[in-house]
Design a protein that fits this description.
By secondary structure, the protein is an alpha/beta fold. Helix content is about 40%, strand content about 15%. Helix 8 packs across helix 11. The structure holds nicotinamide-adenine-dinucleotide (NAD). Keywords: NAD, Oxidoreductase.
């Protein structure tokens, strides 16, 4: 088989234009590749066709508008253009059920539709996170449904996505892409594709299954590392030691081929990946008789953080001589992580719910999140601005810190709060100097692990 991707001018079809697919599609188009994006969501396609983007990823709406204007990106709900493509990249959603089992619908329907339009020489690259074995055992037979044979007529590779929201467009052009091919030749073709069209390094795996497992190990490690930081923070609070100091000192010391890299504690772990991928791995292991106790332990530790943060607020209010049911709490930042407006599985929601259950009046503000989504998820009318949120507040709780908050006039905000006001740092974000200036303004500072 001769791969079509080695021609100078190629067309790439990106199937699934969510977070990952949009970023991949616009980055390739921006690099001069002709891209056809395909998604079953007609309203999303209509928006992108008009050069708009609903995702709150920094730089993404601007890039969508730009590549639509240059004509390098076309978008459609129709699968027919798959037959024009030289490479087909798939980034449909892969949610899991309560028990960790993959919800297969999106993968199955995408693979079936692509299979109907495949032609010889094409390379299909799966990016959706799946339980190891899925690409070979489920995807390949569905792709072959159109009559072509995998490995003979077309190529199939698995290349996990590592981008993290808030920094996606930079990471997509910087992070090496892990590649596992159906066979060595296909793996090498996929590596040529990413190197030449996206300008990134590649890391080769000897099998599709190894590459699938790399993705799950990534998120297992991140979730576990954050759980470690969170439990350390709780312990440090109990012994009166600053967890951030301990982490910084620990991370300074070389270990093995690198250094220990303990991440930061925080309000909890959310988003669409870290909350599901460890369970996907756990389930896949369980089906083979292997119990991954560290997955369970990390998920439990991280899921306990919103409750812990709500307690920090209620305890802090009590120390100020008031109680939650007589207090107003202003929450700044609602997204699951800093510098994104994504509210999917955000750990800030259970914090807000617990505070409201304790009787607090809660005002919420997040300049990056969609106001309609805030209304839907939180059942609250978002404050129009930070001043409105903090007016009369007994606690200012920072649960996600966005870069634009750095412009906030803390002295001005302090003037609007109640006379006694708790400052809750839910992301262990502030350095000693800032904490000092906050306390200088009369805030009572409390942070996770501090
Ligand atoms: N979001 C992240 O930061 C991230 C990071 C790394 C990996 N991943 C993984 O990448 C994959 C995609 O994630 P996402 O966040 O972009 O998901 P998403 O839910 O934002 O997007 C999925 C898109 O696929 C579309 N779709 C569903 N079925 C389709 C079909 N049959 N044909 C065409 N389009 C279809 C949906 O309409 C949606 O727009 C998942 O497997 C996820 O685990 C996500």
């Amino acid at each position: 088989m001769r791969f079509l991707l080695d021609r100078e001018e190629i067309t790439v079809s990106v199937v699934g234009l969510g977070y990952v697919g949009s970023c991949v599609a616009v980055s390739l188009a921006d690099n001069g590749v002709d891209v056809v994006g395909i998604d079953v969501d007609a309203s999303l396609v209509e928006e992108m066709d008009a050069g708009r983007c609903r995702l709150k990823e920094p730089g993404l709406p601007e890039l969508v508008a730009r590549v639509r204007e240059t004509g390098r990106l076309r978008v459609t709900t129709d699968y027919a253009p798959v037959s024009e493509a030289d490479v087909v990249v798939v980034a449909v959603g892969t949610p899991v059920q309560e028990n960790g089992a993959l919800v297969e619908t999106q993968v199955r329907s995408a693979a079936t539709e692509i299979g109907r339009h495949l032609r010889p020489g094409q390379l299909v690259i799966f990016k959706s996170t799946v339980p190891p074995g899925t690409t070979r055992d489920m995807v390949a037979p569905l792709l072959e449904g159109g009559g072509l044979t995998c490995g003979e007529d077309f190529g199939l590779a698995f290349c996990p996505e590592r981008l993290s929201q808030g920094n996606a467009l930079a990471e997509i052009r910087r992070l090496p892409v892990v590649v596992g091919g159906w066979d060595a030749r296909t793996g090498a073709a996929a590596e040529r594709f990413w190197r030449s069209r996206l300008g990134v390094e590649t890391v080769s795996c000897s099998s599709i299954e190894a590459a699938e497992t790399v993705k799950l190990l990534n998120n297992w490690w991140i979730d576990h590392n954050i759980a470690l930081a969170n439990e350390l923070a709780r312990y440090c609070s109990a012994i009166g030691v600053d967890a951030m100091e301990v982490i910084a000192a620990t991370n300074e010391v070389p270990k093995g081929r690198g250094s220990i890299n303990v991440l930061s504690p925080g309000v909890g772990v959310g988003g669409s990946c870290l909350t599901k991928d460890p369970w996907m791995l756990w389930r896949s292991a369980r089906e083979r008789g292997v119990h991954l106790s560290t997955v369970v332990a990390a998920r439990e530790a991280n899921d306990a953080m919103p409750g812990y943060v709500a307690e920090l607020v209620t305890d802090g209010l009590a120390a100020l001589g008031t109680s939650a049911d007589r207090s107003r709490v202003a929450v700044l930042g609602l997204s699951f992580k800093n510098n994104t407006g994504d509210l999917r599985a955000t750990p800030t929601l259970p914090v807000v719910s617990a505070l409201r259950e304790a009787g607090a009046e809660v005002a919420v503000f997040d300049p990056l999140a969609d106001p309609d989504e805030i209304r839907k998820e939180f059942g609250l009318e978002p404050s129009a601005g930070v001043e409105e949120a903090v007016a009369g507040a007994h606690c200012l709780a920072v649960l996600a810190w966005h870069d634009e908050f750095a412009e906030l006039d803390m002295a001005g905000l302090r003037a609007l709060t109640a006379p006694e006001c708790l400052f809750l740092d839910g992301r262990a974000h502030f350095d000693d100097q800032t904490i000092e200036s906050l306390t200088g303004l009369g805030f009572t500072y409390r942070g996770i692990g501090r």
